[in-house]
Amino acid sequence: MSGSVLPAASRPFVAFPALLREHGFAVSPDQTITFLEAVTVLGPRSLEQVRQAAWATLAPQPQQRETFDALFDFHFLGGVAEPGEADDWQPDDEMNVQEEAGSREILIGENVNETGQQAIEAEALAIRALRPPDAGDVLARFARDLPAALPRRRGYRFRRARRGASIDLARSLRAAIRTDGDVMRLTRRRRASRPRPVLLLIDVSGSMKSRTDANLALAHVIVQSAPRVEVFTFGTRLTRVTRALKLRNREQALAQASGLVADWDGGTRIGDALAAFLAVPRFAGYARGAVVAILSDGLERGDPGAMIAAARRLAARAFRIDWFSPLAADPDYQPQTEALAAIRPMLASLSNGNSTAAICRHLLSLGQGEPMLRGRAA
Length: 378
Prior knowledge:
single chain, alpha/beta, 11 strands
């Protein structure tokens, strides 16, 4: 949108992500909107609150934080500048910036983990083509069985029942009219149940590279089969891909989702991603009373304390949290990272995420047995 249609008060906040993009930061339009929402929620009462909102929503790399703060101070304390005026800025050593024909391409340096077998701190910015899964029969059966297998909660609507705590007065009176006012039988009613919402958080970092395509394909099936599903990807940033996965055609949905995610096969900052998710009230509302499935190996390279604090807040909102790790294919697996070991008591399960079939089996079993209520969720 052009600056002429923006309210004057919002123009500096919209111009700041544009300034970051001009200086090598990959900031998506969705992140710009989230930044504006965070600033709106905070007030803001001080410039430091704006800075914290920018850290949480625009997600600079740890090695870029100094440059990010310098640009923030230049923009908000030194006057609103047009992109390109800070000519003394130099790109981070982790990436080489090439400008050709007026476009800027970000190339990641030596810290890129091409094999995808280790968690790294660098942020890889790329467009990736997602391959359709091979487990077509497994996904077809899963799509058929999922709606009836999801945990359910009491709804607000009533339905007719043979036994119930209350009388369905409307139906009873209509039946009495047909018998000239004689009440022959009182109709009972009870609360209808409805499936709980589902929240999928999918790790797209380098250490999960071998599972990314299959996990996104599974997410597409869940979005198509269940009534209320939200899907986010995270690596070094948080991206909502729900709208793309609502396309019925799987190949089209995965192609559109691949264009939204900018941090394929990069580093792992689970704590910062969860904190950014919870910082936006609209996003945090998706977790209330929901079945939360996190598909990640848990190899956090950021601050373990941030991940522990964010997981505690998420568990207080969710109905249950199930963590699917490829490393848990070993029956004797125990979390080795400090953060994942600390949040293990908050999880309903730490399950095998090494194959689509294993994840599907576990998800189909969630509606069985005693419901597991956590925190304030009901």
